[in-house]
Specification:
Length: 118
Amino acid sequence: MIRYINCVKRRSDVSLEEFRRHWGASEFDQLIEKTADLVGASGFKKSFTLQVPENEIIQLMRGSEDPYDGTIEYFLPNAHGFEKAYATDEFRVASAQMTEYQKRFIDISACSGFFTTE
């Protein structure tokens, strides 16, 4: 199985509470579900980062930056579903809608997306 993982960071002017309100909204879930359908994903999972002291301890130990605020994972039979979807008007419209929604609370330039396999 292939996974596409999108790691996201909230905008600096967006509080954690506001981020989680947008993150948990049914509108966002519908956009994710539509994207999953268009790329042929067998499913998806949306997770947000826990606010626990251990995160800070790990950051200090490693000298790393703040963690991402959440992840969205799409489960795919292969990576080609995205390539095929990109060619369709329906996906371009859905992608634009997703981007516009995410701009409300996500710093898109600080996000990272990539494919993985088991």
